[in-house]
Amino acid sequence: MDIKEILNSLHTKIKSLPHQGEQATYIPELLTVDADRFGVYVANLDLTGIGVGDYEQAFSIQSIAKVLSVSLAYQLCGESIWSRVGVEPSGTAFNSLLQLEADNGIPRNPFINSGAMVICDILITALDDPKEDFLTFVKTIANNPTLSYSTQIAESEKEIGYRNIALCNLIKSFDNLNNEPDEVLDFYFNLCSLEMSCEAVAKLFLYLANNGTCPISGTDVLTLSQSKRINALMQTCGFYDESGEFSFKVGLPGKSGVGGGIVAIHPDQYAIVVWSPRLNAKGNSYKGMLFLEEFTSLTEQSIF
Amino acid sequence: MDIKEILNSLHTKIKSLPHQGEQATYIPELLTVDADRFGVYVANLDLTGIGVGDYEQAFSIQSIAKVLSVSLAYQLCGESIWSRVGVEPSGTAFNSLLQLEADNGIPRNPFINSGAMVICDILITALDDPKEDFLTFVKTIANNPTLSYSTQIAESEKEIGYRNIALCNLIKSFDNLNNEPDEVLDFYFNLCSLEMSCEAVAKLFLYLANNGTCPISGTDVLTLSQSKRINALMQTCGFYDESGEFSFKVGLPGKSGVGGGIVAIHPDQYAIVVWSPRLNAKGNSYKGMLFLEEFTSLTEQSIF
Amino acid sequence: MDIKEILNSLHTKIKSLPHQGEQATYIPELLTVDADRFGVYVANLDLTGIGVGDYEQAFSIQSIAKVLSVSLAYQLCGESIWSRVGVEPSGTAFNSLLQLEADNGIPRNPFINSGAMVICDILITALDDPKEDFLTFVKTIANNPTLSYSTQIAESEKEIGYRNIALCNLIKSFDNLNNEPDEVLDFYFNLCSLEMSCEAVAKLFLYLANNGTCPISGTDVLTLSQSKRINALMQTCGFYDESGEFSFKVGLPGKSGVGGGIVAIHPDQYAIVVWSPRLNAKGNSYKGMLFLEEFTSLTEQSIF
Amino acid sequence: MDIKEILNSLHTKIKSLPHQGEQATYIPELLTVDADRFGVYVANLDLTGIGVGDYEQAFSIQSIAKVLSVSLAYQLCGESIWSRVGVEPSGTAFNSLLQLEADNGIPRNPFINSGAMVICDILITALDDPKEDFLTFVKTIANNPTLSYSTQIAESEKEIGYRNIALCNLIKSFDNLNNEPDEVLDFYFNLCSLEMSCEAVAKLFLYLANNGTCPISGTDVLTLSQSKRINALMQTCGFYDESGEFSFKVGLPGKSGVGGGIVAIHPDQYAIVVWSPRLNAKGNSYKGMLFLEEFTSLTEQSIF
Fold first, then answer.
1. CATH class of B3-299
2. ipTM over 0.90
3. Taking the model in full, what pTM does it have?
4. Buried-most residue among B19, B128, C171, C172 (CB within 10 A)?
């Protein structure tokens, strides 16, 4: 069975499974999305690609954007960023304040909310016009000039984001932010509001399957070593307190977002994106996890 | 530069670096070992191999044995074992009781002490003569009939193992042990007392580089899927609360022991073992970590 | 309404209330007790006293004994005991290991299990024949030669006391025990197995209402300052994580046991003991708490 | 020795002791106060009183105000307030977020910051003009028309109060605030900025020594039962994670503030206030604690 057949048959099979989980409710605007959407796209290093289902439909990439922001910070500031955010799995829920307090304001990794906020702070200091410059960075990588933030999503999250405000002020109280919490949060909520299709995300993330260089635009996003390290981080920390489970069952580095998207990387081969809005108890796409587990089982192609 | 040259030059370079860290003191018997020992062995899938330094000297493999015990339990009992122990990184020190209490007696993964005790309990129930049968299992895999437990090490650990006794009784209090704590601890301390050389461990672990089948003896230790999953577990959980760091810097699945040994697997290629008794603050071999980091940097051969 | 009328009417009223809670199940032997027992005794400083209901029936005083053991240790070793156990409320359940780990093996106070074990360790070191000498100490205070440990209760608790074994070994691992955990636990389980009636306990505890001197035997158990301090400790720590609630509603220093007994002290006035075996969710006697709350409301006699 | 002599000799003795601890630095404006100030005032129920040292000098009462705010909320809303804030000691530092997360946004008691914020929220909902009405409430109790908030202190705290902003937003994220965090924090910072002398505070707090009625103005602040309960709360929770220590050594219900003030109540007798700005490691006045410990030792007059 070739990849295309596998994708099609898995899409059909998993789309028809009974629903489990619910869409994230804490960002009201996300609830306007049709919960039955289900798209998949595989982008290969040779620039070929295959899409199934709603792969051309844009969705809110949410925390998937955290891979892009840490990539830009790594490119701009090098290894120094790791003095302000760790590289260890957190072992706790994505928005826990417990660990931050125990660790004196140093977030465990850049993929939990607190860590992503520290990365935002680093970017605000490093960039002239953070929101605009970040968007340009993303557009350039994959030659994709049409990307934009969703003001509605960002505002929707800001309005009831009390826990994120708490997190951000807690980090500030530990002196691990150079900018004011309000500014950091504004940038953070905007990053997460990026809207892209499965196809666009998969193509964008090909640089992580290609040792740091995007094969589409030729942009050198990261060095070989940096690229491997971001993959390693996704492997251990990409799915909050379900990171071990994803690594165990899927066997690829990946990152999820509460919009229901998941990106996974097979180094030297492909980037794959799945999108299905209903989330499991840990906040990761229920059918997305299932799809990727069966996909790597059938292709026998995990990194392990 | 070929692998042999890389190994030799790295061995020379890192052996001459100033010492950092100390040997584990909580098992008095381990202190009888010469702290300056430094050995490396790479075992390739084609059954060739290269050793440097003290690679033929037997050392106490300690927690490295936890990969062997979970492999045997997985072989004997299949996926059912994951209802009693998780597959998530713990985010805390190897002997923490905190998480066990929060998680109602289900250890986060089989590589922290509590998880390894649950695996021991599973094996005690599944095997006729646990200590003898486990030793036979290990001997068979790599055609290595000379292995044995070190009674001195096991007794030395038992005498002052108050924290492990605490852990084991806590698990029992949550009803996650079928056997008595004393019996579980006796088996546990014996497993960890296995003594082997870098070469012996590397050859033994080739089954994890070969989709579950040992290329030396032809033994089918695990299925392809099981083998990938154990590698994934080592990737996310093999180094206690330094697992992210090892994944980030070395980029291979691996497991350390407080005897100063580290095994790492490059799937489809090789198993590598480094031994240097002085440990860093997280309880992992200081020079072992360093060696492996530089080794995968020079060979540009991590799984990411 | 005089005290006798208040006691009688409250006993009648609360005895007839619907049952809530259950007897402690973790000590199987305790389940042999009739759960409907309900006794009260008030012992006054002038050696008069009033009993209602099952006040002459002996019950397992369990943790109430911790007040006696800390009193003896305080008498023998003075303020030095507070370097090994604190005087702060724990804020967590009585058998939590969390805090012990965070506090490096120094229990928060002598009334949680871990703290009582440290006190047992101090007594084992200080006494020639700990179990015998402690019993003599208790018998002497109240001129009561008939007291004894219940071997069945002690054995019953030992058999399944995995959590207490865990606690005790954890303290030992932090070097806060001079004797072996097995010896400490044996003494601890025996202390808790003391059997006494409401009347006997109330008379025994009069020394804490009388600035340290038992008015019955004239024994100087504690100095005035020590006596006040033990009362203060009961006020803040006597009811595990319900200590604030008891202080808030009853307003007297007191101590509960899982056998369903509660002793409370009104300094310079009386000691009162209530016994009703069914426990609320926090492990304190449901009807005992209720009785004392209404008693101090009706008599308007709390220390505040 | 009469009370006056005791006060004078203790003041002389303790004033001359070497300094320990530092003033709170997290509210910059507090640092403008002379750290050597040392005042004491005892207000008796018969309206006599004795002052020593700087007892007429106004200081920032800070958290002492939390007793006043919970008194007003208790008066206005009765027992219903305890569904939103507990009555248990916290066992952790005054500004910990850990427990709030574990307890789903219900603060342990009204004297830790989070609990005081919930009380502020209750008052904002209950009062027409919260800041003005609260001030009137305080002025009325002790016939003291000159009290006011310190705008400088309130603004000083607001500017760098990131941790309190974090706490307040965390509570809101658990739905335990009806008003917006900004409004709650503004009220909270103002309450804490009240400035009063030892004499003024001692007279103001006499209602808690008098079963709820202020003997100066005759104001019924609380019922007898409510008054006893607020005293009980101060006893168990008035000094953050040093509450047990204060209860143990001083034996009176009390409350401290980071301005260096401490108020303690001897029910049916007096209210005493000590002020000395340098704080110990737990955030309570170093010399204030010492003074009160020796005072109750010499007078042999604790509630126990």
1. alpha beta
2. yes
3. 0.93
4. C171
